[in-house]
Amino acid sequence: MTQQATGRSAPQRKRSAAQTWLQAITLTARLEARPHRLFADIVEEWARRQPGRPALLSHGQSFTYGELSARINQYARWARGLGLHAGRTVCLLMTNRPDYLACWLGISRVGGTVALINTRLVGRSLAHCIDVAHADHLILAADCVDAFESARPHLHRVPRSWTLGTGDASGDLDSALAAFDPCPLSPAERGDVTIDGRALLIYTSGTTGLPKAANVSHRRILTWGGWFAGLTDASTDDRLYDCLPLHHSVGGVAAPCSMLCAGASVAIAEKFSAGDFWDDVVRFDCTVFQYIGELCRYLLKAPSSERAAQHRLRLAVGNGLRGDIWEVFASRFAIPQILEFYAATEGNFSLFNVEGKPGAIGRIPPVLAHRFPASIVKVDADSGIPLRSDAGFCIACVPGETGEAVGRIGSADRDGVPFEGYTDPAETEKKILHDVFTKGDAWFRTGDLMLRDEQGYLHFVDRVGDTFRWKGENVATSEVNDAIRDCPGVLDASTYGVAVSGTDGRVGMAALVVDRAFDFGIFSEHLSYRLPRYAVPAFLRLCRALEATDTFKQKKQRLISEGFDPSVVDDPLFLRDPVTGDYRSIDRAVYARIVAGEIRL
């Protein structure tokens, strides 16, 4: 029997789909009419109107709108004093807390760029992200010092570090900020920063290789905040629960900015916890929460909580909620409305399921097709390369047919949407598909396989190429392979994602060729140092050799299709214990328990 929430009723707001779209359009119309109005200005405007209303809440730190605006101004003046103007970058390595937003809003307000670094990275992976930002400075929270030290030996250039909460007098950012005036900035202090300037670098693995730093302009931040404020019908009465990482575009920009755009409040959790989720939602009196699909499944699997029957939630907004649990999730936790969407950090189009059709990631109303020019094109199943007709153009998929989603690149509100790309021009060019439907056109490659049903709704199918998604993160197999091949005793490796019943995304698996020097304990310890936990393969397969093409590209399709089933695979198979990190053999009994969901991955 499912648990039904029976506490205080959630505030009901009934709107038609047309009204929802209209509100989002209204909040994002004609941004260019005020080119110097940045998102920090929206916060300041609300601070003048409601200085005492909570803006950002957490268990350890909270800001009213007045306090948030003041903190933003202190960060802005600090950055200006260091010369962090346009073209200069500072890396931010800080776990979830209200100060995170104040930091990047302040620094970007005077023209600096803030690179939002994944706090789960270590060693070479972390060093790579710092290096590609070409940062002059790095802001380092106390709980991230050890991770940074693991990366220091691998850095090409070590930025000047500023620490928060360490008590170290050298580079103490707390003391430095206290010396700056919290009052509003003068026009001279603000400088000539416009909405088209770069505000953030947000990392995405893309389809291949190490993480890439995607450029995010002030215009996009304003657009994300306005769109989601309109689509969620946010008001000053709302409080959104945000337990997603603040270094991600959804958890760190779209979710909080949607509420701040509307003068509402955001409750920030340090991290997601199924055990604490409903306690937090009720304690902070939240009306909205931001999810990813895995989060919803974890909540369903968690023991029943009395607090789940006491919430006032009116809306859940997020991406990745699978159709098979959509209605069960909404029913068990009495969620009146679910707003599923699709977007990519560097992408130039988004989809929104404002009608709430279970399992769909959205649809594009015909009247808005000019604003979201997207299509689905056929691709080769093995190579991932788009197929072309005899005329040399891509082939659009018909309803029910799977292909790669692409978005037309153009100027703002005309002939498409801009693609701001990455810090690396070569990586930017890899994401652009030319001569798609007409000679000279250009489209952004999402790397995502989708299909459109007969009603025009789009459904996510999978990722193109090697990258797979696990625990809310994109895992690049080339990065995992590099780490594995550096381990003593490993001769060759092939990494891929495999589907496991009852889980979202794909679970990491690696096929290895090893010699007598290979040791599972050394292997596990090596990967825990080189890779974030979500990227360490859960399954191993020990092979005598790996298949490759004539051009030495690995053949993975057979490995993927055979998975980790010992009745199909003759090679030894192993499962990683998520607690100890030890690998143990998979026999048919263990396989049955994994498939039944009795073993946690």
TrEMBL record:
Identification of the protein by name: Long-chain-acyl-CoA synthetase
Domain AMP-dependent synthetase/ligase intervals: 44-364
Localization annotation: Cell membrane; Peroxisome membrane
Top-level lineage group: Bacteria
Classification of source organism: Bacteria, Pseudomonadati, Pseudomonadota, Alphaproteobacteria, Hyphomicrobiales
Main location: membrane
Gene Ontology biological process terms, A to Z: long-chain fatty acid import into cell
Keywords, in A-Z order: ATP-binding, Cell membrane, Ligase, Lipid transport, Membrane, Nucleotide-binding, Peroxisome, Transmembrane, Transmembrane helix, Transport
UniProt key word Secreted: no
Organism: Bradyrhizobium betae
GO CC annotation, single: plasma membrane
Family matches, as InterPro entries: AMP-bd_C_sf, AMP-binding_CS, AMP-dep_synth/lig_dom, ANL_N_sf
Membrane topology: Multi-pass membrane protein
Family membership noted in the UniProt record: Belongs to the ATP-dependent AMP-binding enzyme family.
A GO molecular function held by the record: long-chain fatty acid-CoA ligase activity
Record-linked Gene3D superfamilies: 3.30.300.30, N-terminal domain of ligase-like (3.40.50.12780)
Keyword Ligase in annotation: yes
